[in-house]
């Protein structure tokens, strides 16, 4: 069984998936609400998912992330604290942690070994959570660590593949790759049986249509507007790069990334009792302290 929760503010889909017989359940990509102007988090959306666990009378076995999201904060830690369920993510999160430790200039002592998560999942290795069998599929490109999760006849694609009238995720974040995303969709997802149900990680409701979050591999292959079965690698890479140049940075990118690469842990408490996000300034066009552009527009070292 699948129940979807739509987070209006960030167009994110969270899923609760369970085995109707054993009632063993997992949660995919839960959201922590965050008001950027007040810089205040709230657990309203996470509490809705917690109530659903009770309504459906299921036992939560695990919380998994498809990737470290750049547009919303994860409530995985909150849900873990409330339920005791472990948190899993793709093992290549370590690469993403290294990239962002450097971008944020976090201390060298900040671990980049994935130890903030309970489970580092290896693509291709079936995981058993109670009676649920979950196959993590390698679908990098949006980030280098993205996984899709195949559970029975349903695949949860995160930001690799969206509804066919929208396309795919973007590939211009640090460590992203249009080429990798092409292969993830064309070779990994499109080799699944056509009847496989697809549950997407976001729905941006193009043309203001009603919310849609479920498709099939057959429908995606036939008609995904950015990457169908017929799209060549060269066509996709050129389209993806052109499109990504027109996209703004996600509104919550810095707050999201510094939370989510650490499994949803908020910043540590500082001596005055507060918690503080760190926001890079002028990364793409550096200036001096007066705001005057620097001669070299080279990005700061972020590899
Ligand atoms: Fe994402």
Strand content: 15-25%
CATH homolog superfamily: Ribonuclease Z/Hydroxyacylglutathione hydrolase-like
Major sheet: size, sense and barrel closure?
Answer: 6 strands, mixed
Order of helices and strands: EEEEEHEEHEHEEEEEHEEHHH
Cα-atom Rg, whole angstroms? 19 Å
Which structural category fits the helices and strands?
A: alpha/beta
Structural description of this entry:
With 303 residues, the chain is of the alpha/beta class. The protein is 24% helix and 22% strand. It contains 7 helices and 15 strands. The radius of gyration is 19 Å and the shape is globular. Fe (ii) ion (FE2) binds next to loops.
Offer a quick outline of the entry.
The chain has 303 residues and is α/β, with parallel strands linked by helices. The chain has a single domain, classed as Metallo-beta-lactamase, Chain A, CATH 3.60.15.10. It has seven helices and 15 strands.
List the helices and strands and how they pair.
Elements: E1 2-7, E2 12-18, E3 24-28, E4 31-35, E5 40-42, H1 44-55, E6 59-64, E7 73-74, H2 76-83, E8 87-90, H3 93-104, E9 119-121, E10 127-129, E11 132-138, E12 147-151, E13 154-158, H4 178-188, E14 197-200, E15 214-216, H5 217-223, H6 233-246, H7 253-260
Parallel strand pairs: 3-6, 6-8, 8-9, 13-14
Antiparallel strand pairs: 1-2, 2-3, 4-5, 4-7, 10-11, 11-12, 12-13, 14-15
Helix pairs in contact: 4-6
């Amino acid at each position: 069984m699948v129940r979807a929760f739509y987070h209006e503010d960030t167009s994110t889909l969270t899923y609760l998936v369970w085995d109707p017989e054993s009632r063993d359940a997992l949660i995919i990509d839960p959201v922590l609400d965050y008001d950027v102007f007040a810089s205040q988090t709230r657990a309203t959306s996470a509490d809705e998912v917690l109530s659903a666990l009770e309504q459906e009378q299921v036992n939560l076995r695990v919380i998994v992330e498809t990737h470290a999201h750049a547009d919303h904060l994860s409530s995985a830690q909150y849900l873990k604290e409330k339920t005791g369920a472990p948190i899993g993510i793709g093992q290549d999160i370590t690469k993403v942690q290294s990239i962002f430790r450097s971008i944020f200039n976090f201390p060298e002592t900040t671990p980049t070994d994935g130890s903030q998560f309970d489970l580092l999942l290896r693509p291709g290795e079936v995981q058993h959570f109670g009676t649920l069998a979950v196959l993590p599929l390698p679908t990098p490109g949006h980030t280098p660590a993205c996984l899709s999760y195949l559970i029975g006849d349903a695949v949860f694609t995160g930001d690799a593949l969206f509804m066919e009238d929208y396309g795919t995720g973007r590939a211009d974040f640090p460590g992203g790759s249009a080429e990798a995303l092409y292969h993830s969709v064309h070779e990994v997802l499109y080799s699944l049986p056509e009847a496989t149900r697809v549950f997407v990680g976001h729905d941006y409701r193009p043309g203001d249509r009603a919310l849609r979050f479920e498709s099939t591999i057959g429908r995606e292959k036939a008609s995904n507007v950015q990457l169908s079965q017929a799209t060549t690698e060269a066509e996709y890479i050129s389209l993806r790069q052109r499109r990504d140049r027109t996209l703004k940075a996600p509104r919550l990118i810095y707050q999201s990334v510094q939370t989510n690469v650490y499994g949803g842990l908020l910043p540590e408490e500082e001596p005055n009792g507060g918690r503080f996000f760190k926001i890079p300034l002028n990364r793409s066009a550096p200036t001096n302290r007066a705001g005057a552009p620097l001669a070299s527009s080279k990005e700061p070292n972020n590899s």
